[in-house]
Protein: 2-keto-3-deoxy-L-rhamnonate aldolase RhmA
Organism: Roseicitreum antarcticum
Amino acid sequence: MKPLRQTLLSGGRLPAAFLFLDQPDVAEIIALAGFPLLIVDREHACADMAGALHMLRAIRSTSAAFVMARARDGSPAAIKPLLDAGFDGLMVPDVRSAVEARAIAEAARYAPVGRRGAQFTVSRAALYGTDAGHAEGGHAERANESLLLAVMIESRAGLEAIDEIAATPGIDMLFLGPLDLTTDYGSFGDLGSPELALALRDAESRILDSGKLLGGAALPDTSANTLFKRGYTLVSAVSDVGLIRDAAACAVHRVQP
């Protein structure tokens, strides 16, 4: 099977489930349902690094799904443990400039293209040192080629800097985060803002014109399939919290006397 990055760069389109609950059992259930991509959250979720690793192992044990992680921020300290754990891709929230994007790209890849810490002698991603990290065709080379690196655009400043961020070497995807964008557009929490809708469509066009991958989230009035038709290659379609909440509400409705 192709790595996640190559799957999307070659034209693949993947719906994703976001995992906010620090529950490996829930992650397994959603993976078994057939989602091809799961994203373990460390920005808003309560999961610590050990919890994120347990969820990664749970998914790997039951499914061939790709697994990404959303870091709490773009610092090397937030990025390195997720990469060393062996996630297929990394998502970084609220990137606002090419300077930030460049620092993230350097932290996410090994030399000579980046400055990722070279602890492949002990990392899980390098099979605890049994995968010759520095050798030709070894862990470091494969990691540089296969890691999908996505940055989230979640502010007006980020939207204004899309062209510069997209031009940053090492950034594979720009992922539009509409809910946080409502703050800058004066419609906090209201995804129906006409001004925001226009800004998102303009952002979509600029990202696609740049040649970088476009990612985003399905909205109440915009399905994942609609976004795929508009050129998105990765769409966050559901979350573990949303699935459980909606299923519980339906169950209560069915059993009411």
